[in-house]
């Protein structure tokens, strides 16, 4: 029983990270209809920015997290302005190629600046709790609590603020929003900033637990796309639920069978669920 509870806790922790990353990705995909393949690499850059501000500059973990979120939000704005906005009304293949170019650039940048070796952010909360026979790290609890706070905060932002309502209006009808006087370009930049900032939050929360490496964004970016498809394209509840489902499948499969095959379980679940419900858990069939 302890093994089961331990793997459930680990799965919720991994799922919290996946849910945050997928949430940022689905915002861009669902609202702006842009497949930002570089989203996983923005997550990687968020971890390195935390390392730079928190460790290299000596500002500490929490100030490093704040500066990482601010800087990556600005990177998101620049990415939208100089990479994706010029491709508006162009064939989708152009955005695909631009996204791949962006992810290659970010990975090369990390290699040049920080090198290929793994880096570790010191754990600011190394304390361990024991509850019901399972081991709970404080930092892992912070990952879960941070994800819940971010999801609730983002929901309130989208539903209770003028900017959130504007973003939803653009998502529902871009041309109609333009006709009502909404500055669509500003909404696009804001959406990219929020998306990149969420990636920085996820990376900053998980970085004290795992090593940083330039390649860490590739597999996570792929999993984020799996989660977005699993939950239903553009569905925020689907991205959240899909992230937790994927985390639990990986943790339980890794704990009971082999951690070496945890990615096999994740992608196997995608194939199984899509064979039953091709539109994803919350996706709607187009008519």
Summarize the structure.
Helix content is 74%, strand content 3%. The chain has 287 residues and is mostly helical. Strands 1-2 form a two-stranded antiparallel ribbon.
Give the low-pLDDT segments. Answer: none
The radius of gyration over CA amounts to: 19 Å
Specify the oligomeric state: single chain
The count of strands amounts to 2
- Strand arrangement, largest sheet? 1-2
Mean pLDDT: 86
**How much of the polypeptide forms β-strand, as a percent range?**
under 5%
For the terminal residues, how far apart are their CA atoms?
47 Å
Give helix % range.
Answer: over 70%
Structure, explained:
This protein has a two-stranded antiparallel sheet with strand order 1-2. About 75% of the residues lie in helices and about 5% in strands. It has eleven helices and two strands. It has helices at about 1-30, 40-55, 60-85, 90-115, 140-160, 160-170, 175-180, 185-205, 215-230, 235-255, 260-275; strands at about 130, 135. It has about 290 residues and is an all-alpha fold. Helix 1 (about 1-30) runs antiparallel to helix 8 and helix 9 (about 215-230) packs across helix 10. The longest helix is centred in the N-terminal third of the chain and has 31 residues, at about 1-30.
